[in-house]
Amino acid sequence: MAGTKHDRDDKDMEDTNVSRFMPMFEVFRNELDEHQDRRERIIKASRDITALSKKIVRQLCAPIPPLIAKEIKTRYDSIKDLFTSIAPDLQGSNGWRYQKQISGGCQEYVEAISFQHYLETQTLITHQEAQGLIPGGIELTVDDYVLGLFDLTGELMRFGITSMATNAALPRGAATEGNGEGRDILLDLRSLRTKFEGLDTSSSSSDWSYLKKDIEKKLEVMKQSVEKVENAVYGMIIRGRERPKGWVPDLNQGQERGRDVVESY
DSSP letter string over 174-191? Predict the structure, then answer.
């Protein structure tokens, strides 16, 4: 009988210990569930933003026809709705906690808005201007801004090559005082190349900095984009009169085999 009573006391003590810790583990469980749900929402929104941004980039041209401009505006509105929907999930420290999940969408969005900004103004969009186009108080990191501009060079290359194939000339801005012909896109690409080559990421104290990790690959692809436009211009100048109408420059001319293909072309 004594043994039976002792066993019952042990069981009661175990039940007491379990009930004491259960509320704490329930809190942990709820926090993990919320984290996973929040993470999945951000990943899905980032993918949708990426897809819409790519569609915008593919539609952009100079000048932008009214019908295309209307479609692009609809997609921009959809992107802003997506940013707004996940804004509560990216406030405070969560903005850095889920930076990896939203980074890809931000970079593609910067590529789209910077390309349209260039086509309309022939200037580079600033970080402050790009930040102003992201609603909900979501922070655009400098890393995502710069990496988005790296991708912009691929779109400028494609735009320049296409213009040479259709108009036998490089895209050129409006004439300004002291420059009667206006600035062409190759000059802008060379200027961007110089700026990018001068970037110093060695002072970054963060080991997970996307710019620090990706800059070598991005620099290589960016240089290829500029070189392709340079080679196309050289071919157009030297043998331009021999080219038939509708001629498309050989983008692989002067390029080594096995080198990375520029994503946007």
Answer: --BTTBTT--BHHHHHHH
Structure confidence by residue, pLDDT tens digits, 43-88: 999 999 999 999 999 999 878 888 989 999 999 999 999 999 999 9
Closest CA to 162 of 110, 111, 232: 232
Q: What is the number of helices (H) and of strands (E) in the chain?
A: 8, 0
Enter the pTM of the model: 0.80
Using an 8 Å Cβ cutoff, are 195 and 152 in contact?
no
- Looking at the DSSP assignment, which residues form a beta bridge with residue 176? 179
The helix/strand/coil state of 64 is coil
| Token pair in block for residue 56 | 């915008």
Residues contacting residue 70 through CB under 8 Å, at least 6 positions apart: none
Residues contacting residue 152 through CB under 8 Å, at least 6 positions apart: 110, 111, 114, 115, 118, 192
pLDDT digits (tens, 9 = 90+) for 124-179: 999 999 999 999 889 999 999 999 999 999 999 999 998 888 887 888 877 665 65
Q: Does the N-terminal peptide bond of residue 65 adopt cis geometry, omega within 30 degrees of 0? A: no
Considering only CA atoms, which of 61, 36, 41 is closest in space to residue 105?
41
